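User: Before I run my own analysis I want an independent prediction to cross-check against. Here's the chain; please return only the structure tokens and, at the end, one sentence I can use as a sanity check.
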Amino acid sequence: MRLNQFDLNLLVALGALLEERSVTRAAERLNLSQPAMSAALRRLREAFKDELLVMHGKRMVPTAHAQHLAPQVAQAIVTMRSLLSSSTQFDPATSHRAFRIAASDYVTMVVIVPMLAELARIAPNVRVEILPPQGGVELEMERGTVDLLISPEQFQGRGHPQDLLFEERHVVLGWAENPLLCEPMSEQDYDDASHVIVEVSRTLSFAEEHVRARGDRRRIVIVASSFTVVPWMLPGTQRIALVHERLARAFLPHLPLAIVQPPFAIPPMREMMQYHRTRAQDGGLTWLRELLRRHGHAAADGASLPSPPIKPEV
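Assistant: Structure tokens:
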């Protein structure tokens, strides 16, 4: 079959079918009816002269030819998506583009939320979807369905460009009346305290990796799945948490909290923006990265922590 006789939308359907291995789930993913997806599969079988997906018990499994096609189909879809969004000209004032960003609740709070306030003024029709950076989001970026993956440098994949969003330090956060935070903290004080930590999808955070590498002797009393809930778990208790400095400072005006430097060295965390290699010349994505970078730098202003504990007015 010649290319001019082939409906390229069928490639998108084939990609969804090969990934989902279910007509029903592929239809839901593409916002199609099940009969429409069944019809697409029938046309694909005719075009490729192969069954592509066959029933095995209650599941559909790809044929050998379909397994051979799968990576080529995935790459073709990425390339087509890139062509459709790769214009070097981008006017935020008139654009109706939708961007999908994978970022933690911490990055969303300290950088993306302030950026969205500006976005409402300068790009009122641009839409942003924020996804958690977990559950196969790296694969979504590989497919071209996620525009930006924001995460610490060591958690990013290889083979795609990265931009530095900002560097972050970590501080010890606790209730303002916790005596541990009224003077410089020793390592013994830190280890003996009650700790709140964060694990997202059973993945250790940047801070947790470094703390455990030093030999972990802490008493962990709470394991949270979100960074932004941690400050709420500290007032009125003797609990402490090792948190991002920007996050801690964002809560100081609102909760009776204090911050001190950790009693051991922890390197700065490099928060990176990663995007698909085919999007390097995408004018809209270039504009978005620059906007995020400006807000990342703005969030760093005044974030240097002096030696004495810092307490809010309560």
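Sanity check: Residues 302-314 have pLDDT under 50 and may be disordered.
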